[in-house]
Amino acid sequence: KINMDLQSAGDERKIFSKRGSIGGFHQTDLPFQEGEEAKLKSLSSGQFAIIAIDMGSESLVVETVGECKPKASDVRTLLNMDEPRFYIFAFRKPLFIHCCPDNSRAKFRMVYSTAKAGVISKLKKLGVSPSVALEISDGEDIDDANILGKVAKWTGSAKQEKKSNAVRAIPSEVNGSLSSFMAKSLGKSAMSKGKKRVVLPPRHAYG
Description:
The protein has five helices and nine strands, in the order αββαββαββαβαββ. It is α+β, with helices and mostly antiparallel strands. It has a five-stranded mixed beta sheet with strand order 4-3-5-6-7. It has a two-stranded antiparallel ribbon with strand order 1-2. The protein has a two-stranded antiparallel sheet with strand order 8-9. 20% of the residues are buried.
């Protein structure tokens, strides 16, 4: 998830003309520079393109076109970890990545975030319609599964702890005694061989 530091960005939010707004942020619809769209139209299977925003001309440019295997390790080597960029990969399921590094300038993060929807819309019109769209801040946010659309859209860092699959009992939803609730929290029956299970707190649990 991208953290936008609008306070430090100050009035830079007004860098481009307003085209629309979502959640208080202005959407920007930036044009491609002349001849750049043709590079995207000609993308063939296994190729990729890196799209950047030229801040001076307020337009989109295709920085690089090349080939890439549908492997996370190969995709990571292409990521610019100093500035935000848009990436389109012509895999079996076309992949779009908006990479917005946390250490990049707040101004750039804001501009790329507001331009993303417009870029995807233009790609669709060019016949390069992404089937998978990921928004990341670090190369570790991608893996071999999510770049191929085999899992739900990634919404956070891969470094975040994964949620446990264990079923947890909630007091308001449990009927019966406290010992029954505690036993259900452990995934076990409150009774064992006809005897009530006693759960003791760990040593020094209360200070």
